[in-house]
Each structure stands twice: as C-alpha cells, then as structure tokens.
C-alpha cells in the first residue's frame, strides 16, 4: 500500500458555493487552470484516475486558495463545514481509495477555526488540519494561532502547511519559486519561535519536501527545530531532491505525497487536458529509485503515515 498524504480536492457543494461567495470575483479566475481540472472536482473522474494506481490511497486536502483570502469570516465558517462534511462522506463511501481527510478551517476567525477543527477530529475522524504559510499575511508564529496549536498538540495530530503567496504572479514558474520561499520562511519562523518551546511534540507536515529550500540550505541555516518538520515527497519526480530531504530530515520525517491531481502539465497547456494524475507515477518511481533500504522505502510509502495520522488501516 501507498498512502498519498497530500492530494487535493474541490468537493462539489464547496466549489459551487465558493464561486458564488468569493469577495473579489477575480482570484478564483486566476486559479481556474486548477479548478477546471476534472480530477480535482469530479469524483467519478478521480476514481478512474486512482484505478490506474492499485494500492494507492489518498488523504484528502482542499486545494488553494485559502478560504480566509476569498470570503468573509461568516462565509468561511459555512464553507469549511461544507467541505469537511463532503470529504468525510467520501472517506466513508470509498474506504479503499481515501485513507483520511484533513480539515479545512475558517482561519479568519480563530475561535471558529478551533471549534471546526475539534468537530472535524472528534466527530468526523479527520487526521489533522490544513493551514497555509501565512494567514491573511499574518505569520504562523503569531500568538493569535496559539489556541489552534494547543488543540492539535493535545490531539497529537499534524497540521498540514500548504504554500501561499500574498500575491499571485502571472507566470507559474515565478509562483512556484515564491511558494517555495513562503514554505521555507514559514518553517523558519515556527522553528525559531515560541511554538516548539511551548509544544515540543507538535507536528507540521510541509508540502514539496520543505519547499526544497530548507533541506538544500540546511547546513547553512543550522536551525535544529527545522528537522522536526514532517515533509511530503511532492517534488515532481526528482530522486536527487528526495535524497536531499532524506539526508536532512531523516526517513521518519518523509511521507509519500504527490500533489495529485495538480501538476505543471495543467499550467503548460491550459485546456489541453481535462484531467491528469499529477505526478503520481513519477513520485512513486522517484522513491523507488532512492539509494535507501526497502525498509526505509516502506516507511516513506505508508509506515510513517500510519503512525503519524494514527490510521486504523
């Protein structure tokens, strides 16, 4: 089995309601190349794509953009509940395809976010929550978010960190570089702040293997708490990048994750393909090609996810 801990989805009611409620009416249009991906928003297409990869199970996360950048706090509360209820239904309906889900939160109302996180974990059996590298331009070490960290430390479940830039560059390559910097910056702020001192066992999962920058410059930065982060393998098929992450974070802090169904294929040829499987196959091969033991590969593919997410599989 392989457990993809960072795959994205836009559930039907959530997506339709979000389009109606978005404040500016412009940001989602910039992200349409993602939102129009049929494997992202059509469950039947997604299941057909998953059938290509026997033994792969997904952990569902709602894709960008962050709710707090799109809608009012009251609308964010409603939309997060919609998304979480829909993801919970999918996990129950397709237990052979979806191992768990990660809570979408109304982070422009921290009290409501904590309440929804508690509901998602206790009532819906979610594996954790998703936040972004900044929350309406506030850094993740802002004391405003302490109640959320306290809750997650108490439940001993991880927070997924998805990159998000304050601006959306017009060219996707520029966006990619900005998001990697955002990830590294958020990690360093957390690592140097009160967060790990207050909650030494708190768990964060980064996207794209620490944004790539943290393991690459790890010997230069030398911040011990950076090694406490857990990281996915969504580096689009680069075994060299994974070996860098493996050397820096260690095998126990790497988890199979693909970014499915998103990929640069969507961005190079908008409209050219209605759905893609992202880099699922390339990610699998990049792990299989790592110069490490089969035991370590098994940890990356599923063992670490089972342990970290407390999966009853």
Keyword list:
alpha/beta; 49% helix; TIM Barrel; eight-stranded parallel beta sheet; 313 residues; globular
What report would you give on this structure?
An 8-stranded parallel β-sheet has the order 1-2-3-4-5-6-7-8. It has a single domain, classed as Metal-dependent hydrolases (TIM Barrel). By secondary structure, it is of the alpha/beta class. The termini are close together. The longest helix is centred in the N-terminal third of the chain and has 21 residues. Helix 1 packs antiparallel against helix 7. Strand 3, helix 8 and strand 4 form a beta-alpha-beta unit.
According to CATH, the fold-level topology is TIM Barrel
Major β-sheet annotation: 8 strands, parallel
Query: C-alpha Rg, in Å?
Result: 18 Å
Count of individual domains? 1
Strand order of the largest sheet: 1-2-3-4-5-6-7-8
Question: Can you count the helices?
Answer: 17
Annotated CATH architecture: Alpha-Beta Barrel
Distance between the termini: 10 Å
| Helix share bin | 40-55%
According to CATH, the homologous superfamily is: Metal-dependent hydrolases
Oligomer state equals: single chain
Helix/strand/pairing class, anyone? alpha/beta
């Amino acid at each position: 089995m392989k457990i993809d801990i960072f795959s994205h989805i836009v559930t039907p009611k959530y997506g339709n309601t979000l389009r109606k409620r978005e404040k500016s009416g412009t940001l989602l249009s910039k992200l349409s190349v993602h939102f129009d991906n049929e494997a992202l928003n059509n469950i039947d297409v997604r299941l057909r794509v998953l059938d290509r990869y026997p033994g792969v199970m997904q952990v569902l996360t709602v894709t960008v953009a962050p709710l707090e950048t799109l809608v009012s706090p009251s609308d964010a509360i409603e939309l997060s509940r919609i998304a979480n209820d829909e993801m919970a239904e999918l996990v129950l309906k397709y237990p052979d395809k979806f191992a768990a889900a990660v809570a979408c939160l109304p982070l422009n109302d921290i009290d409501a976010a904590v309440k929804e996180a508690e509901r998602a974990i206790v009532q819906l059996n979610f594996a954790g929550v998703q936040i972004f590298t900044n929350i309406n331009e506030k850094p993740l070490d802002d004391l405003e978010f302490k109640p959320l960290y306290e809750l997650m430390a108490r439940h001993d479940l991880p927070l997924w960190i998805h990159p998000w830039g304050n601006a959306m560059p017009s060219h996707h390559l520029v966006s990619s570089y900005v998001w990697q910097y955002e990830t590294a910056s958020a990690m360093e702020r957390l690592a140097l702040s009160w967060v790990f001192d207050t909650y030494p066992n708190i768990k964060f999962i980064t996207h794209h293997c620490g944004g790539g920058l943290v393991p690459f410059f790890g010997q230069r930065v030398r911040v011990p708490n950076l090694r406490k982060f857990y990281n996915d393998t969504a580096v689009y098929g680069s075994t060299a990048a994974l070996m860098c992450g493996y050397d820096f974070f260690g095998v126990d802090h790497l988890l199979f994750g693909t970014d499915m169904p998103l990929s640069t294929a969507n961005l190079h040829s908008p409209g050219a393909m209605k759905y893609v499987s992202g880099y699922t196959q390339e990610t699998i091969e990049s792990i299989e090609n790592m110069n490490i033991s089969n035991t370590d590969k098994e940890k990356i593919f599923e063992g670490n996810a089972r342990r970290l997410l407390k999966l009853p599989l």
